[in-house]
Amino acid sequence: MKKVTVVFIILLWFICQACQPLTSYRLPPSTIKNITIQGNKKVSTEELKTNISGLKESNKSFLFIRLNSFLSQKRHKKDSLGIKQASIQFFKRSPSQIDSIALNAVKSNILTYYRKNGFLSSSVKLSISGDTIYKFVNFSINEGPQSLFSLNDSLLVDNPSLALSMKDYMQSYSQIKSEKPLSIDAINQQKSSITSYFKNRGYFYFAPEVVGIYLNDLRDTTLQRVGLIYKIPATNYVNNSTRSYDRIFRFGSMKIDEASLTQEDEAQTWVKRSINSTQLKRIINFKEGDIYSLEKANQSLLNIYATDQFKTVNLTFDTTATKVYPKIELVRNNKYTFSSELGGSIFRGIPGPFLTNSLKIRQVFSYLDYIDFTGRIGFEAQTGFINTETTRKNLELNLSTTLNLPSLFIPRQFDTWKQTLTASQTQIGIGYDYIDRPEYNRTNIKLFQRYNWKKSNNQYFQLSLVDLNLLNTNYPSSPTAEAFISYLEELRLKGNNLYRSFNPSFVSSINFQYNYRSFLPSNLLISGNSLLVNLESGGTTLNFLGNKKLTFIEDLLNSNQGIQFYRYLRFNVDYRKYLLVGKHAKSQIAFKVNAGLAYAYGAENGFQLPYEKNFFIGGPSSIRAWKPRRLGPGGYNSTNNLIEQPGSMIIESSLEYRFPIVQFLGKINGALFIDAGNIWNIDHGLTNTVGNFNVNTFLNEIAVGTGLGVRWDFDYFLLRLDLATKAINPANGANEKWVLPKTTWGSGENPIEFNIGIGYPF
């Protein structure tokens, strides 16, 4: 005990000696201890701090103001700007002293920011209080009313042709909407939009400086509902006769140069050569004699980049009195590109490594094509189908080869239609998948063709005329395989068609996909909407065959089982809406509705779908209160949660409120959500009616789940945790469907489901 006391006294003495310089340190006079902002209601303090220089850095209370100042004086290391740096982020900034010039500049910047956002009668007062050492700074803001756009505008355009086009723009394309808040950003966006509008109609030298947009204070002297005056050219614009903004230009002849490195002796030099590639010109969306269009020029650049043949693409124009002559300069990519990825996962303590190699070869058959060779081999740890307590390593092998062609290879009479598209591509590929599990060995040979194109930056299309899959499963001679076969037969007797997924099968389809998205995917909380539509026709070619089969495929597999051939139609639509809400629009309401119908009309196969073409519901990105793929169909109550529940029809929706919580090593957001939906089977007049859709009863079979979650946004990825519980369980009796009060943390009728995922659920 005496030794401990001595050590404690010595340690306390060292601490006191170390703190002596700090306790005797005197703060500089007039040190700013705190800056506050008052009176702001419509514009948040966080928004002001983010957008106004000099305010964000100082608007924070220093918990250890003396320690911060002391450490700042003692630091020796400085960065390139001469600022002393702290090793601990908390002590990085040091308190500053009163600077009247700097504070008045901040005051002026606050007022300017308000004026730019439509608060034309706002005012800001600066006050300083405190003693000789500590000073407190306060900005008191009187926001006043925010002006709104009235759209009661006037047009003053010198050129009659431009005046007609400007009227058309205001009626159909204007970015400014009535009753929206006045802001400089909105006006600048309008200027940019007008500029793009005219540049796409031949006015090569039209620029934002040509457009003058002024407030019209004669119609409403209070400026609460503001009209605008559009003047072309702007009052202060100086017209250059050699670069007239109101002159229409046409595309002239095009020149294409390709640069490459050549080795001469020990020196490398760039060599340019002019090329005349018919294939390259086919993906350029303009031709000689067309009226100049900035959009067509940009689309052509995107088309060239999409070929993945060139490191850089540069488009310039030489002009004459009435024509612009395009000049495209290209720097080619390497002919061969190889990449390799090594990774893995751990399941129940068992590692599952995988290796993926990819080889890209350019210019194989033509100037702009390339072939991708991809191979992946992995050993993934999974539970057994029968005994889920056992874990085994399973071999997965994937091989694929894809030929990518730089345009839509369709009849030439559609060339005019193709000129309005972007990043068009034709793909032809073949693949081989192999899975080796103790229960079975499964192979899939696939052949496909796809057309990909974009109608705009928001609209994506894909059409596949050929999508063939030849699946086969072999069972080893083992007790595990025999038990698995018995397991599939047991499911078949219960109405589950999982067994069909393991029978020899030939699946062919024609499918079309349309995708509209008004925003770029990210983890940010933004406004926008998206629409995904899928149409698929399976086994279409079989309708032209008398026996609805291709006998040579059965001969190819040489299986003792009959080959399954499928004929079906499948439709699916997914709509999502995102809306910013809250006083400062920092929160988001996200809504999703997903509906689909798959109809098998092949009587030779018992009106069954390929297993993968069924709909499934439940899981981290679906109805989160149920386990993945375990809900339904209809009011069916599964006695075994290990069995996936397929269906031919799906109705699913989710509503989620997302809101910020705190900033800690990234953004931490919260969420409250409600999920609803179910799947059903289609009545083909068969004896098995489990989970069939019925117009009179399907509303009583809608499952509802609710819960809350946390999203941790690290910028480069988002980690998600959701806790969900059942509110309405359609598998229960008529008066027992409401199960929310029966929620439990552990086992019970309604246990809470924990869902972990990467990214938002939708």
Give the helix/strand layout.
Blueprint: H1 2-24, E1 31-38, H2 45-51, H3 65-74, H4 100-116, E2 123-130, E3 134-142, E4 148-149, E5 154-157, H5 160-172, H6 184-199, E6 212-216, E7 225-232, E8 250-251, E9 255-264, E10 267-274, H7 278-282, H8 294-306, E11 310-319, E12 323-332, E13 336-347, E14 350-362, E15 370-383, E16 391-405, H9 415-418, E17 422-436, E18 441-454, E19 459-474, H10 479-493, E20 505-517, E21 528-538, H11 551-557, E22 564-565, E23 568-581, E24 587-600, E25 649-663, E26 667-680, E27 703-713, E28 718-728, E29 743-744, E30 750-751, E31 753-758
Parallel strand pairs: 1-3, 4-7, 5-7, 8-12, 9-12, 20-22, 29-30
Antiparallel strand pairs: 2-3, 6-7, 9-10, 11-12, 13-14, 14-15, 15-16, 16-17, 17-18, 18-19, 19-20, 20-21, 21-23, 23-24, 24-25, 25-26, 26-27, 27-28, 28-31
